[in-house]
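Researcher: Here's the sequence for the chain we discussed earlier.
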Amino acid sequence: MTKRSNPRAEQLRAALAQEAARIMSEQGIDDYGLAKRKAAERFGATDIAVLPKNTEIEAALAAHHRLFEAHTHSSTLSALRRTALQAMRLLQRFEPRLVGPVLSGTASAHSEVNLHLFAEGAEPVAIHLMEKGIPHRMGERRLRYEPNRLVAYPVVHFVAGDRSIDAVVFPIDGIRQSPASPVDGRPMKRADAEELEAMLEREPTAS
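Model: Thanks. This is the structure I predict for it:
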């Protein structure tokens, strides 16, 4: 005997996904968990069973862009992708890959550009930026590969144009295995500069 769904719970779940999407778009939040918690707090939802999955929030985010930002989102996304390409050309020696919302198309005007770099540690990347006269700061990021395996990597933060660039530095052989996506848990999609150029050529705003 199949379990019947609760219509009110499903409605709340959809409303929470839409609210989390609105928060991500308007507040520039790329953290699904944080947006989900903010949405739940606003709705007074305390039952974790009604919280939407990240994939549901991503779908709601795409719908939000289509509904409320139809005339601006494509140009915003194109500008972000062009900035990403500029940064990837700057970091060409580290085989950069674009990841995250700018690649998937769910980025907002507040989103930063997420890159994966591959080098023998963060020092070569930092030296390269210093030689180019680009201010930067270092950090650390823990990324998931399996449910119980988190790996810490150095992160380099800098600005290209007027956009923040967040570049995680992997070992050279890290190019063979991508960490899990925070959206669906599958290996994170990556795009190199050639793939990004092809995407930009297909965009209506590319001329």
